[in-house]
């Protein structure tokens, strides 16, 4: 099976780009952030304190997460229930970021991710795909952008949906999440030695897809 790894900070456009590339290449897109978010939904629903590692460890034993595809779109099943529509809220993102630092959480999800990559060709995005989950991926990309550019994209997205938001608050959240993801002890976010860095601050979606297609072609 072949695998492509895309890592990078929150809001760099990983999932948008990975979805488009997966279609182009006929690969399955695997969104690993959604799995950390599904665990977070369980912790929130069961009032588990994200700062209490023992409570988290105990809860992880009661969590079963699996992945299905419906019309080509990834669905996350948490203890038998499809929770996909609950995953993309700010609150769930924050809970995921706080709890993704624990070994019990990561061990469970890394096993699930590796299992998926054994069955089919995947383009997988996350924070530790090129470094830990799929170190043998034939193409690795580290997708990033300035925090200003990432905050501006999220701000425009929310405005478009008619939501009231503050650019400064969004930027602060993004920088906080970057810091937490880059400074945790286990599997911190970092560029793999053999990953190609792509800074999308001044690129549009078409340009990013073209740049990544070229990198992937050259690695084939
Ligand atoms: O990418 P997304 O915003 O959905 O990820 C939510 C959180 O899950 C991240 O902030 C990060 O803490 C965690 N995560 C991770 N490793 C991954 C994917 C996501 O630690 N491979």
TrEMBL record:
EC number: 2.7.4.25
Descriptive protein name: Cytidylate kinase
Alphabetized GO MF terms: ATP binding; CMP kinase activity; dCMP kinase activity
Top enzyme class: transferase
GO biological process per UniProt: nucleobase-containing small molecule interconversion; pyrimidine nucleotide metabolic process
Keyword annotations of the record: ATP-binding, Cytoplasm, Kinase, Nucleotide-binding, Transferase
Residue span, Cytidylate kinase domain: 4-216
Chemical reaction(s) catalysed: CMP + ATP = CDP + ADP; dCMP + ATP = dCDP + ADP
Superkingdom classification of source: Bacteria
Organism whose genome encodes this protein: Lachnospira eligens (strain ATCC 27750 / DSM 3376 / VPI C15-48 / C15-B4) (Eubacterium eligens)
Gene that this polypeptide is encoded by: cmk
């Amino acid at each position: 099976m072949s695998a492509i790894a895309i890592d990078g900070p929150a809001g760099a456009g990983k999932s948008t780009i990975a979805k488009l590339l997966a279609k182009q290449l006929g690969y399955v897109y695997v969104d690993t952030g959604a799995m950390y978010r599904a665990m977070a939904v369980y912790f929130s629903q069961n009032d588990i304190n994200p700062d209490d590692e023992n409570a988290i460890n105990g809860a992880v034993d009661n969590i079963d997460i699996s992945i299905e595809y419906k019309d080509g779109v990834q669905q996350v099943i948490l203890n038998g229930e499809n929770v996909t529509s609950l995953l993309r809220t700010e609150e769930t993102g924050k809970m995921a970021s706080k709890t993704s630092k624990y070994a019990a959480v990561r061990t469970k999800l890394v096993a699930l991710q590796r299992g998926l990559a054994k069955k089919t060709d995947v383009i997988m995005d996350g924070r530790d795909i090129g470094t830990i989950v799929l170190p043998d991926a034939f193409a690795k990309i580290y997708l990033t952008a300035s925090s200003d550019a990432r905050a501006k994209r999220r701000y425009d997205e929310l405005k478009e949906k008619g939501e009231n938001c503050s650019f400064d608050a969004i930027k602060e959240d993004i920088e906080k999440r970057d810091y937490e993801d880059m400074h945790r002890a286990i599997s911190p976010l970092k560029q793999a030695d053999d990953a190609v860095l792509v800074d999308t601050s001044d690129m549009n979606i078409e340009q990013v897809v073209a740049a990544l297609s070229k990198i992937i072609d050259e690695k084939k």
